[in-house]
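STRUCTURE:
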């Protein structure tokens, strides 16, 4: 009569099915955690008011407080300081408004989607 003795009684190899289930469970857990963190970040940004402030959003979304007498102009492709001033004050002498807008821009270029504060005099 022959007796088989295990080389080490504490070593145990799970079956291939058990290994597959564990890997699938770990992958599902990681995917769920990543999704939870992404949704949590979006919810936090929404609560803090940091969403919707890109150049393609409406003029009032995410902007700073301003006086009620001021207006915001969203620069369109082809706009110039002069054409903006003419659109804001049609039929008037626009040179003072051009100077005020240019002072606000500090002589810099206009970019499409940029918001310009048009102060009323």
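SEQUENCE:
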């Amino acid at each position: 009569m022959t007796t088989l003795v295990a080389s080490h009684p504490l070593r145990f190899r799970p079956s291939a099915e058990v290994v597959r289930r564990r890997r699938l469970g770990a992958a599902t857990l990681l995917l769920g955690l990543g999704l939870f963190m992404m949704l949590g970040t979006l919810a936090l940004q929404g609560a803090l008011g940091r969403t919707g402030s890109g150049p393609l959003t409406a003029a009032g979304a995410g902007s700073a407080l301003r006086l009620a007498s001021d207006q915001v102009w969203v620069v369109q492709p082809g706009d110039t300081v002069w054409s903006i001033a003419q659109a804001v004050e049609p039929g008037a002498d626009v040179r003072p408004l051009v100077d005020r807008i240019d002072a606000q821009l500090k002589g810099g270029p206009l970019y499409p989607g940029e918001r310009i504060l048009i102060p009323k005099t």
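REMARK: Residues 59 and 88 are 16 Å apart (CA to CA).
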